[in-house]
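Archive transcription. Copying these from loose printouts into the bound notebook so they stop getting lost. Printout 1 of 2:
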Amino acid sequence: MIWVKIALQNVLKHRLSTAVLIVIFAAAAFVLFWSCGFCNFVISLINDINRDSYGDITFITDYVETDKVKDLLRFPEIEKVVCEREISALFDNPENSTMSVMVELTPENRKRLLKYICPIEGRLPEKPDEIMITDFKQKGVYKIGDMMFATVTTPDKIINAMQYKVVGIAKSTGAKAIGYGFMVSRESMDMLLNSSDQVNLVYLFLKKEFRTEWSIRNLHTNIANNFSAHHIQVKNTWTIIEQKVKMSIFSQTMNGIKIIVLCIMFPLIGTVIAAAVWIYSFKRRKEIWTYISLGMKDSTITLTYTLEYWIVTAIGIVLGGSLGYVSSYVAKAANVWLTFSYSVTSQLYAQFGIVDALFMSIFFLVTVFIWIQIPLRRIFKAVPFSY
């Protein structure tokens, strides 16, 4: 305990060097917090977005009755069947016209997709004549308050149109074609298609024990055959397995970024700390040589200084980590988004947990321990001057 007491006394005694090192460690902890935290957040989005958006197995079909679909999907592996509508529409107003995808926001998918859809202007549509657009393709084309007509073909092959008012502009990760689409309420979709029981998008959530690759592929084949036998035309279909393979490159990239940051931080922090320790330890060489003259071993002096710098490091980590958490919540509250591609668009947010904090702490403590050895040993080996 005496070495801890000496270390604490030195931290308080050498205020200038302590303050400088705390600032250095706080800045480094802040950078590492955001580097790892944001990468973790993007990876979690990549891992979750496919299942949250389209379940484990997805079928895009011709229009078919909801009850008929659910009757054909009575498989024990299936936990939940979700039927929705996703259609192409012509959007037109006196200034602009475009073909795009329209999707419905239901009470069920609003909850699941909340972290992927976030209005940056206005709000989500509530009334049948309200619509929200995303800024992926519509940025600068439509604005809040614009009126437009959406023209579609109903399940009965009738051309139908409705007038909408733009009430929101959203950022999106690209889930459910929302990255380039228009969003309306379920009631609006019912009116536009003249039907509430015809769907063309079916996706299945499987029970946890059946989410293996073999189970998913086998069930997918059985359902596809079942649809074919009942003359339900499947326009497109996929499973979560293929989607994860497609998105794995982004997960690998994010993990690679974390490794690169650590590889850069280790020598960068190390050289800065070593230089700072050398400067301040050189100024304190009388103190070190006094310890030596009193018979203290080099290892004991090193332990004392290591404890001192570890205390300073811990203060810097707490300060930098706290600044990181505060800035992360501020960025989330400010609704700041970053776009890497259509597939990966995310809020600026750091997902940093207890395990990450422990890893960061160990990383800094080990880095400090390694890099302070060189300057301290040089002082130990130097010839003391007379005083």
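Printout 2 of 2:
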Amino acid sequence: MPTAADDVLTLAIDIGGSGLKMLTLDANGEALTERLRVATPKKATPEAVLKALDGMIAKHGAFDRISVGFPGVVTGGVIFTAVNLDKSWVGFDLAKALQERTGRPVRVANDADVQGLGVVEGRGVELVLTLGTGMGSALFVNGRLVPNLELAHHPLRKDRTYEDLVGDAALKKIGVERWSRRVRKAIDTLEETFNYRLLYLGGGNADKLETELPKNVKIVSNLAGLLGGIALWRD
């Protein structure tokens, strides 16, 4: 007979620089609804994003708790960086705001961390990169997360960062072929740095790559950024 914990439904939210995504998960992390997506407001302040989420939540049915992936450094539900959203996010308590609006408990983490929780095997060193508006990153050692790893803003070439070179703006400016070569260069540099067992590539632009990838690099579904939300509740 199922216990109360077996019946808990988690509303998983992924806040991105270009899109807001949402679906409901059962206690095993299986999707119960189709993924809902709307465009991120052009002026992506907390108020504008929360208003958009209100509309999405109203269409989503019952849930017991909320998991959120956010594109920046997050500690205790509070946003510390938001490079690809409005600067007013810095210092904003997103967990508290969503809890007050929904009456449900909320946990918030970096979006790449959440994506990693949805895909890692839990053996050795595993690295996750998300290629979207910017570049997200997450590091796991034997399944344990090293939270808020922000590789995107470290220099890759002279004074240009990973995000400068492989973010969405660069892709649109230089085209898929050159962008793919840059991503491969980033992969090679990161393997020399972290000596990872596996690297997972996610995010909306990962499928656009036109380069041969090393055997220890896997492209994973962008849906993992939502499915990993259930793991935020595993204490």
